[in-house]
Write a structure and sequence with these properties.
CATH architecture of the largest domain: 3-Layer(aba) Sandwich
Distance between the termini: 91 Å
Number of helices: 8
Structural class: alpha/beta
Helix content: 55-70%
CATH superfamily of the largest domain: DsrEFH-like
Shape: globular
């Protein structure tokens, strides 16, 4: 009876000790996890395709997204407002602003130079949903080239969507009996000043934020 009593006491002590150890282990594990979370910081994976975004000089970073032609035009105004306000209100300089404007979806044709618009202006106007007056011919030059060049001269850069460009190249290839890959190579080689062909405009939106860019979306109004 006495031996059985002692056995039961020992068993309870052992189980109690194991339970306490388990609880202590859980507590320590929780503390370690919390410490790791508190001391660690999420760092996005870097890719060579996005490295140009991090190389742009400037102490303020802004990424302006557009997906329609009117929004692409307004994005240029947004960019100038940012620069002008930084200079006038913050006594800064235009060089402080690292600004990227993204042309994707229907605004993508704004990312091509005059040489391409001279060849494919009608297609660009249609795919870009460019508002034309009745009887007005499609532009034979990029309708924003002068402003784009001026912005590029101030250090602004432009992301041009390869996904949309591939679709555009397919349309042109069918219309002109060319190979899609040849047209796409032509589009890629004829971007506006400071233009960068990115795999997808929507991807550039997310990657820019991983590099510390503030996000703006430019609408039609």
């Amino acid at each position: 009876m006495s031996d059985k009593h002692h056995d039961n006491q020992d068993r309870r002590a052992l189980l109690g000790g194991l339970g306490a150890a388990a609880l202590a282990g859980i507590a320590l594990s929780g503390k370690a996890a919390r410490a790791q979370t508190a001391s660690g910081r999420f760092e996005a994976q870097r890719h060579a395709l996005d490295a140009w975004m991090d190389a742009l000089p400037g102490t303020h970073r802004v990424f302006i997204d557009t997906d329609i032609t009117a929004g692409g035009v307004n994005a240029l105004r947004y960019a100038m407002n940012l620069m002008n306000s930084h200079v006038s209100a913050y006594q800064g300089s235009e060089a402080d602003m690292a600004i990227v404007i993204c042309y994707r979806h229907a605004s993508t044709p704004l990312g091509y130079n005059d040489a391409l618009w001279a060849k494919y202006g009608k297609t660009f106007a249609t795919l870009g949903r460019l508002a034309l007056k009745e009887g007005e011919a499609a532009p034979s030059a990029n309708p924003q080239m002068a402003t784009l060049a001026a912005h590029a001269g101030k250090g602004m850069h432009f992301a041009v969507c390869n996904s949309a460009s591939t679709m555009i190249a397919g349309v042109i290839a069918r219309e002109t009996s060319q190979k899609l890959e040849d047209v796409l190579a032509e589009l890629t080689a004829n971007l506006i000043p400071n233009g960068h062909m990115v795999p997808a405009g929507v991807m550039a939106v997310t990657r820019a934020q991983e590099y510390g860019y503030s996000f703006l979306y430019s609408s039609a109004t």
